[in-house]
Write a structure and sequence with these properties.
- The structure is a homodimer.
- The first copy, chain A, is an alpha/beta fold.
- Chain A has 3 domains: 145 residues, 3-Layer(aba) Sandwich (Rossmann fold); 165 residues, Dihydrodipicolinate Reductase, domain 2 (2-Layer Sandwich); 76 residues, Alpha-Beta Plaits, CATH 3.30.70.
- Chain A has 14 helices and 17 strands.
- In chain A, strands 7, 8, 9, 10, 11, 12, 13, 14, 15, 16 and 17 form an 11-stranded mixed beta sheet that branches. In chain A, strands 3-2-1-4-5-6 form a 6-stranded parallel beta sheet, with helices on both faces.
- Chain A is elongated.
- The two termini of chain A are 46 Å apart.
- At the A-B interface, helix 2, helix 6, strand 12 and helix 12 of A face helix 2, helix 6, strand 12 and helix 12 of B.
Chain lengths: 419, 419
Amino acid sequence: MSKIAVMGFGVVGSGTVEVIYNSKESIERKIGEPIEVKYILDLHDFPDSPYADKLTKDFNDILKDDEIDIVVEAMGGLNPAYDFCKSCLLAGKSVVTSNKELVAAKGAELLEIASQNNVNFFFEASVGGGVPIIRPLHMCLAANEINEIAGILNGTTNFILTKMIREKMTFDEALALAQELGYAESDPTADVDGHDSCRKICILASLAFGRHVYPENIYTEGITKITAEDVEYAASWGGAVKLIGWAKATHKNGVKESDVVAMVCPAFISSDSQLASVDDVFNGILVRGDATGDVVFYGKGAGKYPTASSMVADVIDVAKANGTSQTLTWVDSNQDFLIDYKEAELAKYVRAECENKDDAKQLIQREFGEVTLLSRKNCPKNEIAFVTPIMAEGKIDEHIKKLKDGGMTILSTIRVLDY
Amino acid sequence: MSKIAVMGFGVVGSGTVEVIYNSKESIERKIGEPIEVKYILDLHDFPDSPYADKLTKDFNDILKDDEIDIVVEAMGGLNPAYDFCKSCLLAGKSVVTSNKELVAAKGAELLEIASQNNVNFFFEASVGGGVPIIRPLHMCLAANEINEIAGILNGTTNFILTKMIREKMTFDEALALAQELGYAESDPTADVDGHDSCRKICILASLAFGRHVYPENIYTEGITKITAEDVEYAASWGGAVKLIGWAKATHKNGVKESDVVAMVCPAFISSDSQLASVDDVFNGILVRGDATGDVVFYGKGAGKYPTASSMVADVIDVAKANGTSQTLTWVDSNQDFLIDYKEAELAKYVRAECENKDDAKQLIQREFGEVTLLSRKNCPKNEIAFVTPIMAEGKIDEHIKKLKDGGMTILSTIRVLDY
């Protein structure tokens, strides 16, 4: 008999309980024994819930009950989720979580504790919602060196960008619509400033490269400065603006000890890319392996039942693991394998105001050599837009500074990525 | 120590051996013990191969060697692969295969034998090449009822259709190019007639619905009759022609005992679909679950290293299973849960010749009510094309017969699918 506790009875927690009871028969067939949710931890009362009898406000009920061998954490946030999960692992209980903040900040430590206590710490639901990505990535890794991962990892910002692209909305209009539809929180900072994507790319990069990548070390830029003009230029260039979390091995020190560059930023993505057609609230994650080539995973990145179904898949895997530790492991690390993002080789789209277009073109050519000039309908006389050649970002920025020195006003710059 | 035998030293077999030795260190770290290829079975000599000392022509060397606990089958075809794999499983050796013909024809039997002998029979590489699909599908299944699966499962035909769409080639021109580039065999029947896709959708459907679906019971139509005109009409309709293998639960008898309809056919797919952007030799597989919604897996569906990397991922899983049977199981079945494909509800694109367009339109409206008329550049005066409303295919065909009776010549019909 697998006895489970669910911590947090919000959207994901209640979804997980529902999926467990809706699919109870098929889950039990898969794990070969009965399954039961014994406790639901939440500080609120839910007198009308069919699971009201399982509710407790005291974490110790769970921690001290030896019958509980699997704990599902769906509280979100770092505290008290971190303390609770750590205590459970130390007490020999496996933990399944959808909490990307927790995994991105404390993954290496919790994986280590799980391993020492011969239990599992699984987090399929922390990235990509209902899209299986953590375990497939682990599978890809089995026979591949992963060179790069890039993804549209946040449905809210992708919805906003899709509305800006397809319906010519401004950022503010699209954000307001996202809030109206319940896709964005009243405080949308974590989404639109890229923090949510940052946590997710940290989890994926840690798994792919075997060493913990901490969010505070990843350059993160959100979508609040993207304008309708930028979106239009992206289309004229042959692509779209997407918020991309990406991480790339630079192979400077050989494959095994490779340096890694990682970033979250809005980017021009070619319409040929599989990521370009990931629209609305969907997520898409591209894994570039040396043997498999590009593999892409696509689906709903959030939502009650998609996320709950990933939680339940983890619960089943823990139950099937039968008391052995199958933890997907990476190790803690000082962050010296992360190279400065200014060293990343890429191109940039630049939009600028100038006094005289011909002079500006000459200046641009002097700095960058041949560039791709972009156009848009009703372009003001004094606006110029182009895509630079590929070089280290720091170099590009030096040249852009020269454009400013030469009298041009830079209106926007957006990276151009090759996914 | 895991000792492995590889049967078949062609493209996939030699790729598997290479990947094992190239990633030996990382594989051994994952499985926690040394790994070695002890035998390679092939009837040819490979005197220049670095693995020449491992070659044998006698299957009994493998079968009778108790040190061999994992056998990789990369011979292809039903015989002698079936006998060899069966003998290995009966002798307590786990089998990993990329052989879709074998799994589609004998999967239920070999899974049953593996289970009885407490060994594993894995076949991740049999569908989607390097794209992880078998195990992610199994994961999705854990907490989902799968309602539908649809995929572009054959890279050769997808390459041909892409060339017809993008470069306006005829079928014959595109096939010749595919042969020139080594994507198509000199006898391309298995690809262009849909048999390869049929085997793959049978494997996916068997896994999703828990009962073996045999290829001979699946209506299969290839792409040889697709014309440049059809491709043009698909574009004017807002999509593309793709060869789709699909299987769908009809839920007639409730979810658990659902009837299933499955088919391989060229189809109009809307350009909004994630499958529409799967081009060239790539594969894309859409899984529609009740909790996750649509999840799509995309990548290279064939090729030496992608396929080999899936084989090696399976080898690692077998080695980690440590002598326990983790077989992904479905059961044999009489095929009475498969309903007649004529009962499937869908729409059809119809292209026809008529004497008089106005008369033809009236006749069409009498039969189908409102239809979507399609147009193309330089359309001959006596050609008419349209998309029917959605209804059972059998009904559509009855109405089409009436069009013929009314004097119209049907030039082509292609199904319109909602993926």
